[in-house]
Design a protein that fits this description.
By secondary structure, this protein is mostly helical. It has 2 domains: 131 residues, no CATH class; 59 residues, no CATH class. Helix content is 44%, strand content 8%. Helix 4 crosses helix 6. The protein is globular, with a radius of gyration of 18 Å. 30% of the residues are buried. It binds zinc ion.
Length: 191
């Protein structure tokens, strides 16, 4: 794949011009220069406007669990996550990570995953808000850590939604994201 095209996409992302970065990525995919990989992580292919909005959230993400990263490193890993979301290959998504100190014990892939989960969650919350959901139920997965489990079954107002991933998750510190917490919308037909 032409290095110049990739540099162009990264340059657009660095300037926050997601729309342009997205059209470059789509152009590359159209020319089948991406080796048959799904367009985005977990093969979640979003409609154009949603994809652009999602990448904007990624470029702005500040999960508390990453508060140990320096500001330049946070910017680098956001860029890397955006490239991942745009469907670029492993070697390309690591390009922004020059002199990246990282955050032990989390691998760079875990860091990207964390930003991905955080941004996806913010997107979900915004959507709940748009459709008038007022309350959320916290549901922990079967094999999550004690802290995440302690929230299980609690109901909270949408505006009091916790951050995701849970900043107090005990297992994330060992380099693993536990099953974690999910916010389920509470649908009350009396509202
Ligand atoms: Zn946890």
């Amino acid at each position: 794949m032409s290095e110049n095209i990739i540099k162009k996409a990264i340059g657009h992302l660095e300037l926050g011009d997601v729309k342009q970065a997205y059209s470059v990525a789509k152009e590359i995919q159209k020319n089948q220069l991406i080796d048959g990989k799904p367009k985005s992580p977990f093969a979640i292919n979003l409609p154009d406007s949603q994809q652009i909005n999602f990448i904007e959230l990624i470029l702005d993400a500040k999960p508390q669990l990453l508060s140990g990263l320096s500001k330049p490193d946070l910017i680098k890993i956001r860029l890397s996550t955006a490239l991942w979301q745009l469907g670029f290959s492993e070697s390309t998504i690591n390009l922004p990570l020059v002199d990246f100190a990282g955050l032990s014990p989390l691998s760079n892939q875990r860091l990207r995953l964390l930003i991905f989960i955080h941004s996806r969650y913010l997107e979900n919350l915004a959507q709940f808000k748009r459709i008038g959901i007022k309350r959320l139920e916290l549901v922990s997965s079967g094999n999550c850590c004690q802290n995440c489990q302690s929230y299980d079954g609690q109901e909270i107002a949408l505006e009091d939604a916790l951050e995701a991933p849970n900043p107090d998750c005990l297992e994330i510190k060992d380099g693993v994201i536990c099953g974690g917490l999910i916010c389920k919308p509470v649908i009350n037909f009396d509202d």
